[in-house]
Write a structure and sequence with these properties.
Elements (H helix, E strand, L loop, with lengths): L11 H6 L2 H11 L6 H6 L17 H7 L1 H5 L2 H22 L5 H6 L19 H4 L3 E5 L19 E5 L4 E8 L6 H21 L3 E8 L8 H10 L3 H9 L9
Parallel strand pairs: 3-4
Antiparallel strand pairs: 1-2, 2-3
This protein binds zinc ion.
The site of zinc ion has 7 residues, from loops.
Length: about 250
């Protein structure tokens, strides 16, 4: 397994908390021993190794993230939105927290709950601490409207913004096959570069975070970095990335 992901290891503690069925499913998804058409064919159990939806070879990678018919039918969207909802909930709690005023923030060195404080010799720079009165929209079920002054047809999955501080954070989630997280990151980064430039030209401070949670449930490092930048650190962040949005949830 050569996934460039920090959280790919399943710890004993985690296994201990899982129900037997989920353990089995998780391990089988990681080691590709689930009964995909391709595997069933290899085991001599079926004649055709093809995907029932499109006819291409039915490997697990294909079924979970590569089937064009499943994509058109919105089968992957359901899963994407489930992960998105979870991330949105975490960010929504964070953006509602009372922030120190900008002047206070400049004077005080503060340490978040759950942090040791050792690494905070210089002032921390969480994005949400830089502004106030943060709003948030997530692209779940309804059309996302970008704040005034920025016109775009692009719809990032989550937008957090402060009108008074003229700051905007765009978060775009992809749920790819684990090995394709880096590729997805680069693709999404490029897709939104122009929008970020437009925001900045209109006088907004803008940040973009493409994040990936692999379709077998393993969050990429980009998720960790985004949470950190937004100020979700310590225990809260650990809990967030340890959440397994695995395919076990899907069946
Ligand atoms: Zn297919």
């Amino acid at each position: 397994m050569k996934w460039n992901l920090p959280e790919r290891k399943i710890t004993w503690a985690e296994l201990w908390r899982m129900e037997p069925f989920r353990i089995s499913f998780m391990l089988r998804s990681v080691y590709d021993t689930l009964p995909s058409p391709s595997n069933l064919h290899q085991w001599g159990l079926i004649e055709e190794p093809s995907c029932k939806l499109c006819g291409e070879r039915g490997t697990m990678a294909h079924l979970l993230s590569g089937c064009k018919v499943a994509l058109t039918q919105g089968r992957y969207r359901w899963w994407h939105d489930k992960v998105l909802k979870h991330l949105a909930e975490i960010l929504d709690i964070e953006r509602r927290k009372k922030r120190p005023s900008t002047t206070e923030a400049k004077q005080i060195r503060f340490v978040r709950e759950g942090d040791t404080g050792h690494a905070t010799n210089s002032q921390q720079h969480f994005i949400l601490d830089k502004g106030s009165e943060w709003n948030m929209r997530a692209n779940i079920g309804k059309k996302l409207v970008f704040p005034d002054g920025v016109h775009t047809t692009l719809r990032p999955d989550i937008v957090v913004w402060s009108q008074s501080s003229k700051m905007i954070v765009a978060i775009e989630l992809t749920v790819p096959w684990e090995e394709r997280c880096e590729e997805a990151y680069q693709r999404k980064k490029e897709k939104y570069t122009e929008l970020m430039t437009t925001c900045r030209e209109r006088g907004w401070k803008a940040w973009l975070f493409p994040v990936e949670v692999g379709c077998r449930g393993f969050p990429a490092q980009s998720v960790w970095r985004m949470l950190q930048a937004m100020g979700i650190v310590g225990k809260a962040r650990k809990t967030a990335v340890r959440q397994r949005y695995g395919i076990a949830e899907m069946i």
